[in-house]
UniProtKB/TrEMBL annotation:
First-listed, main subcellular location of the protein, grouped into a coarse class: cytoplasm
Membrane-spanning ranges: none
The protein, known as: NAD kinase
Residues where NAD(+) binds: D45, G46, N122, E123, R148, D150, T161, A162, Y163, S164, K165, S166, A185
InterPro entries for the chain: ATP-NAD_kinase_N (IPR017438), ATP-NAD_kinase_PpnK-typ_C (IPR017437), NAD/diacylglycerol_kinase_sf (IPR016064), NADK (IPR002504)
Function, in words: Involved in the regulation of the intracellular balance of NAD and NADP, and is a key enzyme in the biosynthesis of NADP. Catalyzes specifically the phosphorylation on 2'-hydroxyl of the adenosine moiety of NAD to yield NADP.
Annotated SUPFAM superfamilies: NAD kinase/diacylglycerol kinase-like
Matching Gene3D superfamilies: Probable inorganic polyphosphate/atp-NAD kinase, domain 1, Probable inorganic polyphosphate/atp-NAD kinase, domain 2
Active-site residues (renumbered): D45
GO molecular function: NAD+ kinase activity
Organism: Agrilactobacillus yilanensis
EC number(s) given by UniProt: 2.7.1.23
Cofactor(s) needed: a divalent metal cation
Subcellular location: Cytoplasm
């Protein structure tokens, strides 16, 4: 099994990375940053996002494992004080994995730029720099609403705990095959009218935004911002590709959500 380690540069991360290199080598693992079988990310959820984009062209063969050097994350199953447990799990690896849906983003521009495809793990957003964004929103090719406001966000199930949640989106169980649209500050009047609540569409549906002509759009693909495109149309659907995690232990999703956003509480009935 060939391993790559992808990490941020924080001091406690570097300490964990050194420990992993030394002990994985002693346990007989080899390292290959170009074509790994397993990518171990050390840092946070943001570090895993960055690794995902780095290895996005090899998703069919790579499995990811996330180590968090701070609080427990959504893409990170291991804490930095559990590295020996992780190495033990890697030694008895039998190829087990859990896969989650990704977002396919197809961008068509007004200029001669060829149509582009991007994959998102969390979400894609579109905003306008100089003014409000005006865009028609289509679901499965049919006009659904005319949006005017700060911007629009389309997120994956695993991205539902990230930006989408800050925009009032629902938290989705990550294995659901669905996409969610959330609005950023929509203006509602006689001309522009939106549902004004998050919309969740299923895997056989696709979403299209057709913004009014402008040159100052900012399109984001997870943490990556693209601001040089004269966007004509963006199509969103669930991608054929999926991200796979090496699932050495079961982490209950709702327990993670509770830990991240609510914190431990005493149950009045005492049955927690
Ligand atoms: P960042 O601005 O440095 O960090 C964004 C925060 O989002 C970090 O605390 C990160 O956790 C957390 N995060 C990332 N993915 C998550 C997920 N699926 N569920 C819950 N939390 C998640 O940027 P970054 O680390 O490169 O991450 C880019 C992401 O930031 C974008 O994809 C977007 O979702 C998010 N974002 C959020 C807002 C907002 O909520 N207002 C605005 C812009 C972007 P860690 O600390 O564990 O890395």
């Amino acid at each position: 099994m060939k391993i790559a380690i992808h990490n941020n540069k924080k001091p406690n991360t570097l300490k964990a990375v050194n420990y992993l290199y030394k002990n994985l080598k002693q346990s007989g693992f080899s390292f290959d940053v170009e074509h790994p079988d397993i990518v171990i990310t050390v840092g946070g959820d943001g570090t895993l996002l960055s690794a995902f984009h780095h290895y996005a062209d090899q998703l069919d063969r790579i499995r990811f494992v996330g180590v968090h050097t701070g609080h427990l994350g959504f893409y990170t199953d291991w804490r930095d004080y559990e590295l020996n447990d992780l190495i033990r799990a890697l030694k008895v690896d039998s190829g087990q994995s859990v896969a989650y849906p990704l977002l396919d983003v197809k961008v068509t521009c007004n200029d001669k730029r060829p149509v582009e495809h991007f994959l998102c793990l969390n979400e894609s957003t579109i905003k306008r720099l100089g003014s409000t964004l005006r865009s028609n929103v289509y679901i499965k090719g049919k006009l659904f609403e005319s949006f005017r406001g700060d911007g629009l966000c389309v997120s994956t199930p695993t991205g539902s705990t990230a930006y989408s949640k800050s925009l009032g989106g629902a938290v989705l169980q990550p294995s659901l095959e669905a996409l969610q649209i959330t609005e950023m500050a929509s203006i509602n009047n006689r001309v522009y009218r939106t549902l004004s609540s998050p919309i969740i569409v299923s895997s056989d549906e696709y979403i299209t935004f057709r913004p009014s002509v402008a040159e100052d759009y900012v399109l984001t693909i997870d943490h990556i911002a693209l601001n040089d495109r004269q966007v004509k149309q963006i199509d969103y659907r669930i991608a054929d590709e999926r991200i796979r995690f090496a699932s050495y232990r079961h982490m209950n999703f709702w327990h993670r959500v509770e830990g991240a956003f609510i914190g431990s509480q005493d149950d009045e009935d005492g049955d927690r």
